[in-house]
Structures are given as C-alpha cells and as structure tokens.
Amino acid sequence: MQALIAVTAGDGIGPEVTDEAVRVLERVGALGGHSFRFESALLGGAAIDAAGEPLPEATLALCRRADAVLLGAVGGPRWSDPNARVRPEQGLLGLRKALGLFANLRPVAPHPAFLEASPIKAELLRGVDIMVVRELTGGIYFGEKQRSATEAFDVCRYSVAEIERVVRAAARLARERRRKLTSVDKANVLETSRLWRSVVERILPGEFPDVSFEHMLVDSAAMHLLRRPRDFDVIVTENMFGDILTDEASMLAGSMGLLPSASLGAAPGGIFEPIHGSAPDIAGRGIANPYAAILSAALLLRHALALDAEARRVEAAVARAIDAGALTADLAPRGAACITTRDAGAAVLAAL
Q: Looking at residue 45, which CATH number applies to its domain?
C-alpha cells in the first residue's frame, strides 16, 4: 500500500509524541511492505506564530489530499486569551469541518498494569472495553452565539441528518464488537435530545436489528461510567456530552497518556490524535508519554488505511512495552525509575 500521511504536530509536547508515532508507522511500513510518505504542516498556536492564523491554507490543502492526518495537540498559555481573535483550537475545529469529519471515536480499555493507578476500584475495571462515539459538527459548540453586557446565549441545534449519520457509524462499530449500543441524551429536558432519541428509535430497529440499544440520560451515564463501566460497549452521544463523558472515561485508564482518538467522516481518511492536551509545562523536556499518539497511529492504520492486522500489531507492541516496564513519568509509580519519550518509542519499536 502507498499512502500520504499529513503530520500536524501542533504545540507543546505535540511534536515530541508525534515523532514517536511517525517512527512506529515507518517501521510498520517497512515490515509490511507499505510505502508511507509523511509531509508536515503547521496547525494551532505554531501556525498563529508563523502565519497569523491557526489553519493556514497550505495546511488545509495538504490535509485534503492526504490519506490521513496524524495530529499532536494544539494550544497553550501563549494563546490562551479567550477574547483573542484567533485561537489554536479554531485550527482543529476548522480542519474537522473542512474534511467533513462528524464522528469522534475514543476507545477506553484499561491496561491491566494500571488498574491500581485509576481512582476507580480495580475490580470495577477488569474487562472494561468501551468505544465512545461523539458527534463532532453540531450542537452547542457550533450554534449561534451572542453576548452583551447583561446576558449571553449559545444555541444548541441538531438536524436529523447529523444525528442519523453518527448513529449509523456507532451502530456499525457496535455490530463489530458486542452488539450493544447506549445512546446518551437529556431527553427529559432538551428538545434536541428528544429529536436525537426519536432518530435512534427509528434507525436501530429498522437498519440494525442485530444491535441491542438503550437510552440513558447524560447524568445517569456519568454516574454509571464510574459505577459499572464494564456494562458499556459502544456509547453514542452529541458533541458537548461526548466531550465531557470522554474526559471522565479517561480516568478509567489511569492516564490520559494512554488514550487515542479518531475523527472520521463519510469518506476514507480522518484525523488521528491523542486525547491529551499540549502539556506546555513539560514541553521540550523529553518526558512526555507517546503511547496515546502511537495508539492513534494504530487507529489511523485501521480506519484510514484498512490495515487492521498492522493496527493490532501496534496495539500489542504498546502493551508489551508497558508489560516490560517501559513507563514514562505519568505511568511509573511514585519514586520509581521512568523513561524518556524517545525510550518509550524505542520500546514499542523493539516490541514490533
């Protein structure tokens, strides 16, 4: 296979962890006889500094012609003024919109080595394997906004078509897993959630009769994610609820440094990135955890390039590296020896 992969390393630790993901993809390509070509472009704060905008036209053009986008992280205190005309996050949101990406996939499967590191009791975490599918293009984040001296509002808006496509994407994933889908909403209060629920009830029985489904209010979902996480398989929900619930679910894994994500659309390709931020406090020190970025590269192999065997190989290599004790500072027990970002990448390469 030949593929062009756009690399938008972004800000903070983004370049450090993305470098390790690229190294792993290069090794996978060499081992499997694939030709992966990488081209870099600016996004986020780095793009603001260099070009005055968070998503330069050259970056967008590269990402449009690429087979997939590997992204680091954007943002940091240098660009944190909420009243600024341009902000790093605008680059990521603009790129998602331009590429037509509407489904954000965030898998959560705690590694056995870190069950005790999670604030959740270990016995609740054994066997947890959740896929959260978050709608990316609608809802309150993208609705009309207005602010005056005395009031402000953000409109939450969804169309039937937006809900249909993300629910179908989630149901297809559920069909490949344990065939169980939980749709999260706030239908007891919100009209958008009532629409969401009606679409789910129309699509699932008719198009996916082999997938069982349930509705769950978002406040109940937040509670049950911590109380009985093993009961969930695939969760589908709207933009803001998904944003909040996936950050909560990251605590099940013990560290955000272990969790990847994929943003997909109707066409092949997508954006693949760790869910953690740019961590400017440790940027440049060579101690960042690259495992989430490497696991994001595995999702890239699976969902953008249809190389599932290679994806599973990368995931297994990360697990073996961790089992062998290749732990960065965020993963190592207090007082224990820890390794550098580069060494963690090397441990995965050795496991491959």
A: 3.40.718.10
Task: HSE, CB side, 13 Å, CA atoms: give it for residue 236.
Answer: 28
Residues 131 and 223 in one domain: yes
Query: Is 219 known to be catalytic?
Result: yes
141 is annotated as an active-site residue: yes
Give the integer Cα–Cα distance in Å for 277 and 239. 18
Do 126 and 240 lie in one domain? The reply is yes
Same domain (yes/no): 282, 177: no
Which element (helix H / strand E) includes 342? helix 341-351
Catalytic, 243? Answer: yes
Residue 226: both structure tokens together: 């911590």
**259 in any annotated domain:** no
Name the stretches of the chain with pLDDT < 70: none
pLDDT in tens, 297-319: 999 999 999 999 999 999 999 99
User: Pick the catalytic residue: 19, 97, 129, 141?
Assistant: 141
**What is this structure's pTM?**
0.93
* 247 catalytic per annotation: yes
Q: Catalytic pick from 67, 186, 233, 330?
A: 186
